[in-house]
Amino acid sequence: MPRLRTLGNRVAMAPSRQPAPQRSSDRRMTGRALQERRLRIWSRDPHCAACGRLVAMHEFELDHIVALTNGGADMDENCQVLCIVEPDACHRRKTQADLGRST
Ligand SMILES: [Zn+2]
């Protein structure tokens, strides 16, 4: 069955369309819409998704569970609270991990 073999090759070669990670080119929400999303997600659960710390409004950043640079969607459902408070600073750590670096 030559046709099946051809199809198999095409599936195996499905390309990854994601470009190299580039923080500054993320198409992130900004300004008011982002502030409203912060409040919305924090109100839902004001705990850091990584370490479980209860965070105040100025102690966290919104994180994309699947990073935008890794193909994640820019939606509430893909956002979580991560603390920026030392020594854990979970958001900074996760960002490093998303970019393929280890800390
Ligand atoms: Zn944390």
UniProtKB/TrEMBL annotation:
Residues 1-31 are annotated as: Disordered. One of its GO terms (molecular function) is endonuclease activity. Residues 36-92 form the HNH nuclease domain. SMART domains: HNHc. InterPro entries: HNH (IPR002711), HNH_nuc (IPR003615). It comes from the Bacteria. This is HNH endonuclease. It comes from Luteibacter flocculans.
